[in-house]
Amino acid sequence: MTIRSALSRTLFSMLLGAILVTGGISFYEFRRALESEIANNLHFGAGAVMQRIDTFLFSQLENVRVWRQLEVMQDIRVNDLDKRLSHFLFDLQAGQGTVYQALLCADTTGRIVAASDPGRIGAMEPVIGEWHKVHGTGLEGVMIASGLEVQAGAVVLRSSIPNAFGSGEIGTLYALLDWGAVLDLLDEAVADEPRGVLLLDAGGYVIGASKGLRERLGSERKQWILPAPAASSYVHEGSELGDDTLLVGVAASRGYQHFKGLGWRILMVEPTSVSFQPVWRLMWAMLAVLLLTLGAGVWISSRLAGRIAQPIMGLTEFTRRFRQGDEAVPQVPETTISEVWELHHAYVEMIEALERSREQLVRAGKLAVVGEMAATMAHEVRTPLGIVRSSAQLLERQSGLGEKERELIGFIISETERLNRLVSMLLECARPNPPDFKAHDLHTIIDNVLNLLESKAEKGGVQLLREFDAKDAVFNCDREQMMQVLLNLVLNALLFVPDGGKVAVSTHREAGALWLSVADDGPGVPPELRERIFDPFFSRREGGIGLGLTIVQQIVQVHGGEIGVSESRWGGAAFNIRFATE
User: Fold this and answer.
1) Backbone angles phi, psi at 119, to 5 degrees
2) How far apart are CA 336 and CA 188, in angstroms?
3) What is the pLDDT of residues 481-529, one digit of tens each?
4) Contact partners, residue 370, CB within 8 Å, separation at least 6
5) Cα 30 to Cα 24, 106, 139, 280, 376, distances in angstroms
6) What residues contact 493, with CB distance under 8 A and at least 6 apart?
7) CA distances (Å), 288 to each of 15, 21, 376, 490, in order?
8) pTM for this structure?
9) How far apart, in whole angstroms, are the C-alpha atoms of residue 381 and residue 374?
10) Which residues on neighbouring strands pair with residue 564, listed in sequence order?
């Protein structure tokens, strides 16, 4: 699996997961909030309908209570001979519109003696199985047919007629309330809405419904089981009404004024398929957004993965070329991703470190050759050199030697000394002495070295400069080896600077490191030679051995430092040494 495919899959999976989780939670929360809002609305609507019905019933019960006390009702005792009571009842019914089917007055025997409908006179009063007492101040004695026993679409209200001229009762007033007036109230409550209304009596039986539900329920008397008496809304299985599920709002009768109500309930129902249509529209909209987001996410993740993978692939290709000998530095990737930039720079630093390591290995190999040569020369050369030197010294003590002979003997002694120094330097380069680390002030060491070389500098008219910018130059080092480093660098500078030139030894601190620099105004070191100048046996001076700077580099590296050569501010050479102090 490639980095690009892995990144693309990971980004796609994260995006898909985030969208699904966020969409699912949003869908659930929106559905729950919508359900709560609709349920509250249904409960409020059911309460309003129930209040209208309670007001309507109170009005009719109050009519019956008032009518029974009218003086004209006393005509029952004379069987309404002049039909004055019947005419009165007719006028009452006509004044109420279509609210009543009929108004009847019966005597104590149950025979109807007066009626708004003349055809009912002489008949017997309505036969009702059970009456329900109406509770409320002033409504004592007013009753309604229990369970709403409907006779020809009417519900019967009943009240006794008191004897205005004595005690007891003289008859009964019946009001046949047209149930259609109540059903009209239910129909008006859900006009032009996909909702329905059910009216339940105190026993939980359906006694009325809005038009759409009446057609579904039919004429069969059904009981509706409520989940809890105090529930204001709930979800109901709606197979009875031909729906999957219903959202139901419940409101109980609270009466009106001094009318305590009949214990009825109104159920306002709405199919969830209708209630949750906005939710499903939201779901489809979210699905469309999901698909668009996923498409954009795939494109973005592919582009992002490509921008991350392309630089890495470039570095991989460079690794292959580097392994085959191509030492070109990889190009900076065209990206704004900081991690990729950091990877590129770290990779370049690694390549440079590998190159330095390779150079150090080559130099170590050369030093190993030097070591072998030094060991061989020390064994094969020093003894003969000692014999030659001793013999030359003995010859020099002979008397009678001429100037020519003494000159030749001097050549022998000086050359044997030069060869002995070469052997010593080779041994020192091959097997350097381990340093004795102690805390020393670098400025003091520099002063000692410059004092030693001051006379030599004065002979050539060279100015030795001290530029100590480091406030604290104390660090752990081997004093003798550090003096050897400074002596080699300053002597090299003195050999190359012209008469009247300058050699500056400076120090400064920077980022946890102590810097030492030896700079001159001589010809400098050409850039193409700066990498080779520390190699063994490489010398730019005629007669030079080429081991001085190699020894300097070894000592600096043993002290945990780094040395390099650059151009001084005067155009000459500048040898810069960095010692880590933290």
Assistant:
1) -70, -15
2) 68
3) 899 899 889 988 888 888 889 999 999 998 889 999 999 998 888 888 8
4) 426, 429, 430, 536, 537, 547
5) 10, 61, 49, 11, 93
6) 503, 518, 519, 520, 522, 572, 573
7) 15, 16, 87, 79
8) 0.51
9) 10
10) 576
